[in-house]
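Thought: the user wants the 3D structure for the chain below. I'll pass the sequence to the structure tool as-is, report back what it returns, then summarize two notable features.
Action: structure_tool
Action Input:
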Amino acid sequence: MPAVGQDEITRYVEKHIPDFHSARLESLKRLELLKVLGRKNPYLFKAKGLTTPRELVKAVLDAFLSSQEETMIGAFLEGLAIFVAEMAYGAHGKSIGTAMDLELDKNGKRYFVAIKSGPNWGNSRQIAKMRDDFKAAKRIYRQNPNTLPVECVNGCCYGKQSRKSEDKSDYVKLCGQRFWEFISGDPELYIKIVEPIGHKAKERNQEFLEQYEVVVDRFTEDFRKNFCDKNNRISWDKITKLACEAPPTKPAQKNSN
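Observation:
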């Protein structure tokens, strides 16, 4: 097994981390107030005691952006994990014919890997779908001659759990250090990737913060016009209706015959 060098990791990260920052900035520029307000829980923000338009706008916007950023960094980390496994084991990412993110041969076994950002990534239905994908991948693989023993892995890029809870019967769940070690053979890799990920983060974050203030100002002005009374008090009824009111029922179409 060839070692995955720090220089190789650094080059990969410095090449691809700008994609995360660009996607984050472009997503911020495209946001619309009604879209953001309509997707967040009005009861939560009312319970937090927010009273001014600007502080409510910032709270809703921050919650929305945090969710988006988690998805974006997850996509970056998945790409990094595939790169590391390719370098260490000659693995294959995004296999054609299966729904697997990664396939690798190690210690005389074929591993099918579904990569997720963190350990609490899905509900029972989504986990059941992953299990079905594992079954389908094994069935397709075993149609070929000279197959290896198969093991399925749910790899999570961050988080941790006890080793006793890793065995899920039909697959193994590896989180954080355990996952990065599995795909690289290096128990310290989870630490080694931290520093490169911060490449030019300060400069890029400054650009994001400048645009963020522009969006907050624009959203606050729009919010006052549409969701405040003449005394600049928040109309919680309007916000709640936007997020929760059932759409009108469409009238049944008349049969022309």
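Final Answer: Structure generated. The first strand starts at residue 92 and ends at 93. The chain has one domain: 19-244.
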